[in-house]
Amino acid sequence: MEQKYYFRGRRADTLSKVWVYGSLLEWEDGTCEICSVDTFARMKKITVKRDTVCIFTGLYDCTKWEDLTYKEKELWSKTGKTYSDWKGRMIFSNDIVKTAYFDTPAVVQYIKGNFYTSGMFLIETYDETMKIIGNMYDNPEQICSFVVTS
User: Fold this and answer.
1) Rg (CA), the chain
2) What is the reported pTM?
3) Strands of 95-98's sheet, edge to edge?
4) Domain that holds residue 122
5) Do 62 and 47 fall into the same domain?
6) CA distance 107 to 92
7) Are strands 106-111 and 7-10 parallel, antiparallel or unpaired?
8) Alpha carbons 49 and 113: distance in angstroms, whole number
9) Per-residue pLDDT averaged across 90-109, rounded?
10) 56: exposed, middle or buried (C-beta count within 10 Å: 0-12, 13-18, 19+)?
11) 8 A C-beta contact, residue 63 and residue 89
12) Which of 25, 78, 81, 118: disulfide with 106, CB 3.0–4.6 Å?
């Protein structure tokens, strides 16, 4: 599995649930910023809430292009990519996933450099049926399985 260090976090300057994606900067004062490049190739830094920062697992779920909403397709197209570039939704830590492997939804966790779901390594439970059904911040009601703490 190729690991790409890519992060997401919720904007700190808004009450809306806006996620920002890109590279993570952590400052000594505890502030976190995510750097990303906009559609005009301009670098921008956005302050995010530290407790919402999630890391990309390097894996994608089974969502097909045809299953995306019009808005999701439009956002994808604005990145300069086409439908042929689509691999599925990126799976991040703190996402809630469902797969044929689990009876209940499970939280993807990042602990000491490894990804876990329901206490097992993510790579051991990953299969082509894995689908993101939410995340701990936007959909806490989806959490049914236990959560391992570090």
Assistant:
1) 16
2) 0.85
3) 120-121, 114-117, 106-111, 95-98, 131-135
4) 58-142
5) no
6) 10
7) unpaired
8) 21
9) 87
10) buried
11) yes
12) 118
